């Protein structure tokens, strides 16, 4: 249990397992899952995101080590859209192939393996991770929703510029990007959250990770996972193996090395983050497949992250 990978991943697997048992025994019924998803997405996630970003000062961040990470994620994200076609399903699966569990798993894992120096690099990534990946996914999803609605005759076809403008507006005024932007703006003022505000936000944010993972387990219990094994394996392979491989290749091409490079490779190998499941719930698409993908990616990470860490140590 002292191994950093096992110490970080087993609690996540156990939380999903607890949710699975609760779902199987009907302690949490199907009718309640949507409400719990809204609680996590609309209340807990904004509290966590705002509080985390409220202490980030942009001028202190070193963006060089994370360049390879986001370039690799972008190649996979848009490559998925090209292969699967522009739709809500493709957008959610593209996010699943690129969005790492950097907080729940990444922080303890990197802390155990690389110490404070590694955490500095990881926190630089975390400060941008949700802002870049979730905002990108939201813009694409909002555009896809508009396109599908127009195709169904629910809306008149808009001029492309107007469509993009509305999608960006919907992406900003959204439970995920909005608290990130608000937290960043607050941090630049130099002010500190008063304890009476910070403490409730901390409590809400702390509840996010466990409840989100338990919710994955509940949905997993209500899902015929056997019918999604192949798709879940494909998502896990893209996230756990393809993403770190591309980061390693791009980092090598950019001349990166040392501890920051190793941390970015390992961060890219982290399993699919629970936020992807929440996006699939919110946009009502690929819920069963994403649920199976998150679970399989997390379980397989016990082996794949260990492999990537060993190889990253040599490259770094």
UniProtKB/TrEMBL annotation:
<feature type="transmembrane region" description="Helical">
    <location>
        <begin position="120"/>
        <end position="145"/>
    </location>
</feature>
<feature type="transmembrane region" description="Helical">
    <location>
        <begin position="6"/>
        <end position="24"/>
    </location>
</feature>
<keyword id="KW-1133">Transmembrane helix</keyword>
<feature type="transmembrane region" description="Helical">
    <location>
        <begin position="241"/>
        <end position="270"/>
    </location>
</feature>
<keyword id="KW-0812">Transmembrane</keyword>
<keyword id="KW-0472">Membrane</keyword>
<feature type="transmembrane region" description="Helical">
    <location>
        <begin position="207"/>
        <end position="229"/>
    </location>
</feature>
<feature type="transmembrane region" description="Helical">
    <location>
        <begin position="290"/>
        <end position="312"/>
    </location>
</feature>
<feature type="transmembrane region" description="Helical">
    <location>
        <begin position="36"/>
        <end position="54"/>
    </location>
</feature>
<protein>
    <submittedName>
        <fullName>AEC family transporter</fullName>
    </submittedName>
</protein>
<keyword id="KW-1003">Cell membrane</keyword>
<keyword id="KW-0813">Transport</keyword>
<dbReference type="GO" id="GO:0016020">
    <property type="term" value="C:membrane"/>
</dbReference>
<dbReference type="Pfam" id="PF03547">
    <property type="entry name" value="Mem_trans"/>
</dbReference>
<feature type="transmembrane region" description="Helical">
    <location>
        <begin position="166"/>
        <end position="187"/>
    </location>
</feature>
<feature type="transmembrane region" description="Helical">
    <location>
        <begin position="66"/>
        <end position="83"/>
    </location>
</feature>
<dbReference type="InterPro" id="IPR004776">
    <property type="entry name" value="Mem_transp_PIN-like"/>
</dbReference>
<feature type="transmembrane region" description="Helical">
    <location>
        <begin position="90"/>
        <end position="114"/>
    </location>
</feature>
<dbReference type="GO" id="GO:0055085">
    <property type="term" value="P:transmembrane transport"/>
</dbReference>
């Amino acid at each position: 249990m002292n191994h950093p990978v096992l110490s970080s991943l087993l609690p996540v697997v156990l939380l999903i397992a607890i949710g699975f048992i609760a779902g199987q025994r009907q302690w949490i019924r199907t009718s309640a899952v949507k409400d719990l998803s809204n609680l996590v997405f609309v209340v807990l996630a904004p509290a966590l995101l705002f509080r985390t970003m409220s202490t980030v000062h942009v001028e202190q961040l070193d963006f060089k080590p994370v360049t390879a990470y986001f370039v690799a994620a972008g190649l996979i994200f848009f490559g998925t859209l090209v292969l699967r076609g522009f739709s809500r399903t493709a957008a959610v699966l593209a996010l699943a192939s690129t969005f790492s569990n950097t907080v729940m798993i990444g922080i303890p894992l990197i802390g155990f393996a690389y110490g404070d120096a590694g955490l500095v690099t990881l926190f630089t990534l975390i400060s941008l991770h949700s802002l870049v990946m979730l905002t990108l996914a939201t813009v694409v999803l909002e555009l896809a929703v508009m396109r599908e609605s127009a195709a169904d005759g629910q809306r008149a076809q808009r001029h492309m510029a107007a469509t993009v403008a509305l999608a960006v507006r919907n992406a900003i005024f959204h439970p995920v990007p909005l608290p990130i932007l608000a937290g960043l703006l607050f941090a630049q003022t130099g002010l500190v959250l008063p304890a009476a505000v910070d403490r409730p936000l901390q409590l809400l944010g702390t509840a996010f990770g466990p409840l989100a993972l338990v919710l994955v387990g509940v949905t997993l219990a209500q899902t015929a996972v056997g019918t999604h094994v192949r798709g879940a394996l494909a998502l896990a392979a893209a996230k756990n193996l393809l993403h770190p491989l591309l980061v390693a290749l791009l980092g090598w091409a950019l001349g990166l090395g040392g501890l920051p490079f190793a941390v970015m490779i390992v961060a890219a190998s982290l399993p699919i983050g629970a936020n992807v499941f929440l996006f699939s719930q919110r946009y009502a698409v690929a819920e069963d497949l994403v649920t199976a993908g998150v679970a399989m990616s997390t379980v397989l990470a016990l082996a794949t992250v260990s492999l990537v860490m060993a190889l990253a140590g040599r490259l770094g």
